[in-house]
Amino acid sequence: MKVNILTDSTADLTKEQMSEHDINVYPLNIYFGEEEYIDGVTINHREFFDKLSTCTELPTTSQIPVGQLRDLFLKFTENGEEVVVITLSSKLSGSYNSALLVRDSLDMDRKSRVHLIDSMSVTLGLCNIVLEACKLRDKGLKGKDIEEEINRIKSKSTLLALIEDYKYLVMGGRLSKATAFIGNTLNIMPVIEITGGEVVPIKKVRGRKKGYQFIIEKARAYGIDTSKAFFMGHIDDEEAFKHFEEYMLNNFDELENIDISPVKNIGAVVGTHAGPHCVGIAFFKK
User: Where in the chain is the domain with CATH 3.40.50.10170?
Assistant: First the structure.
């Protein structure tokens, strides 16, 4: 029977990827004050960042209503089919726990065909995990086997990024105005990593190039699994990405032996917290 793959819009998959790999995506909701939007449906990336640049309070996000999620689970378990559901990190959202509750509300037969995975990641890292699940499905693995293999390897999915704009970290309460002022004055930027399901600042650097170099050194220390996808991406700043990409290709020799996936535009849900001008990479560690 068919194994369906289901994830949420924070994976930032392109329409081409969804179509090519037969991936089903459910959107999260975004709120600018009282205005409600559906991520990627009633607001696209360009419209979102235009609104973000003028807002005085950060937009908020919410997970899919449980009733809609239940309908999806029922749809993808029709006629004996299975569904592998891969959510963004449970430490960043309640999506995984909601999915557990919905699965447990199903009858025993359908429940046994819903396989839930807490990706412990988001955006490029989540995208990478979803694509690995698709590879396993295409090899003929059943839902339970896909669940077990992804749970085995997901901790190796890594995202490293450089944040240049302190504005949204301050608005979100993740950074004090004083710290942001000092950072902006001295051109100090944080490098973040998604580790253990959380976004963790791991280094402060002075200037873009030192940030780029630190990302290279960190990735080199981990080692890159070349059998899996390698992504470079940005949040609403193609110009900054051009500099980042050029630096990476000229200074990260290991990339010569890696099939680099198409550039990823990181979307609204993550962009809300990191803000524009963020660049980064995602890969699986060896």
Answer: 3-154
Instruction: Provide φ and ψ at 78, rounded to 5°.
Output: -65, 150
d(CA 262, CA 233): 9
Angle at 282 between CA 277 and CA 283, to 5 degrees: 165
The pLDDT score that the predictor gives to residue 174 is 67
- 156 in Cβ contact with 225 (< 8 Å): yes
Contact in structure between 266 and 12 (CB atoms under 8 Å): yes
Give residue 175's pLDDT. 67
- Asked if 110 contacts 77 with a C-beta cutoff of 8 angstroms, the reply is yes
For 75-102, the pLDDT digits (tens) are 999 999 999 999 999 998 899 999 999 9
First CA to last CA distance, the chain: 33
Class of the CATH-defined domain 157-284: alpha beta
Residues of the chain with CATH 3.30.1180.10: 157-284
String of b and e for 233-270 (b: at least 16 CB within 10 Å)?
bbbbbeebbeebbebbeeebeebeeeeebeebbbbbbb
Domain 3-154 classification at class level: alpha beta
Q: For residue 282, give the H/E element and its range.
A: strand 279-284
What letter would DSSP give residue 170?
H
Tokens of 285: 């560690």
Q: At residue 238, does pLDDT exceed 80?
A: yes
Provide the whole-model pTM: 0.92
Round to whole Å and give the CA distance between 5 and 2: 10
Return d(Cα 138, Cα 239) in angstroms, integer.
37
The Cα 87–Cα 172 span in angstroms is 23
Long-range Cβ pairs for the range 22-25 (8 Å, 24+): 22/134, 23/130, 23/134, 24/72, 24/76
